[in-house]
Design a protein that fits this description.
The protein has helices at about 5-15, 45-60, 65-80; strands spanning about 20-25, 30-35. It is α+β, with helices and mostly antiparallel strands and about 90 residues long. It has 3 helices and 2 strands, in the order H-E-E-H-H. About 50% of the residues lie in helices and about 15% in strands. Strand 1 (about 20-25) and strand 2 form a beta hairpin.
């Protein structure tokens, strides 16, 4: 039995691990980086695992433009700030 993941699942994943998208203007594609969070406030994830998840997150969040990345980044930062995790 497979479970269909949603846009909200992708957002929750980004918040859980403190990862935010940004637009790579050279390669014209979304990439991800760790947000500036308080030490120990978010779960650890290895870079290798993080990179394996990126394609699914990009698809679920429909990240096709710089504006899409900016919107998701603002939302994730807002949620992190609300939880007291953002520096």
């Amino acid at each position: 039995m497979s479970v269909a993941l949603t846009r909200q699942d992708a957002m929750n994943w980004l918040v859980k691990f403190g990862v935010i998208p940004y637009w790579d203007s050279i390669d014209k594609k979304p990439l991800f980086r760790k947000a500036d969070v308080k030490k120990g406030s978010v779960a650890f994830i290895s870079r290798e695992t993080e990179e394996q998840v990126w394609p699914g997150v990009i698809k679920l969040l429909d990240l096709k433009t710089e504006a899409d990345c900016a919107t998701v980044r603002r939302n994730v930062e807002h949620l992190l700030r609300e939880q007291g995790k953002l520096l």
